Automatic annotation (TrEMBL):
Keywords: Repeat, WD repeat
Native source organism of the sequence: Ectocarpus siliculosus (Brown alga)
Residue spans of the WD repeats: 23-65, 66-106, 107-139
Annotated region (Disordered), positions in chain: 155-177
Superkingdom of the source species: Eukaryota
Lineage: Eukaryota, Sar, Stramenopiles, Ochrophyta, PX clade
Listed name of the protein: WD repeat-containing protein (Partial)
InterPro entries: WD40/YVTN_repeat-like_dom_sf (IPR015943), WD40_PAC1 (IPR020472), WD40_repeat_CS (IPR019775), WD40_repeat_dom_sf (IPR036322), WD40_rpt (IPR001680)
Protein's UniProt keywords contain Repeat: yes
Statement: the UniProt record of this protein carries the keyword Oxidoreductase: no
Family matches, as Pfam families: WD40
Length: 177
């Protein structure tokens, strides 16, 4: 068992009753953490200092820094194809290249803070927001659906969603006659 504490600008990994490592991760509160990689040997952190970072858990060293949000990061998670996804109070969802730290896509997704996100299959992202909307996007940023709830959304979870229907091209042809 392990215990994870992240209510300060540091992240502490504690196997039961024993502190394994303290990572001084950010200049403000750490708002979200997620294990990264098939071996769970790396850790993603997101902070109200507007950055996300990827850490090597064995060495405690930062491997990558993701910056570009203009307000605090509320949620981080591994994305499809080894990418990194971040949600922010700046009302955006961002997709990052883990190797370069480059922002590949900015999805301006809500009129309020994006508070949570999850993957719903290999190419679908579900977001929740303080604007009370739950939205489904593909990784290219296209909106595939939304619903509005009675209160702010603070967490989302979804089973894999079926792929969107493919439209068949209209093949012309004569009209009635």
């Amino acid at each position: 068992m392990s215990n994870l504490s992240y209510h300060q600008p540091k992240v502490e990994l504690k196997p039961t009753r024993l502190l394994a490592r303290t990572i001084y991760a950010h200049h403000s509160y750490v708002s979200s953490v997620a294990f990264f990689g098939s071996q769970c040997d790396r850790l993603l952190t997101g902070s109200y200092d507007e950055t996300a970072k990827l850490w090597d858990l064995k060495t405690g060293l930062a491997l990558q820094k993701f910056q570009g949000h203009t307000d605090g990061i509320t949620f981080v998670m591994p994305g499809p194809d080894g990418r990194v996804l971040t949600a922010s109070e700046d009302r955006t969802l961002r997709v990052w290249d883990v190797d370069t730290g480059e922002c590949l896509r900015v999805i301006r997704s809500h009129s309020g803070a994006v508070t949570s996100l999850c993957l719903a299959g290999p190419d679908r992202i579900v977001t929740g927001s303080s604007d009370r909307k739950l939205r489904v996007f593909d990784v290219a940023g296209h909106l595939h659906g939304e619903t509005e709830l009675d209160s702010e959304i603070t967490a989302v979870a979804s089973p894999p969603l079926p792929p969107p229907p493919r439209l068949r091209p209209h093949r012309g042809g004569g009209g009635g006659g």
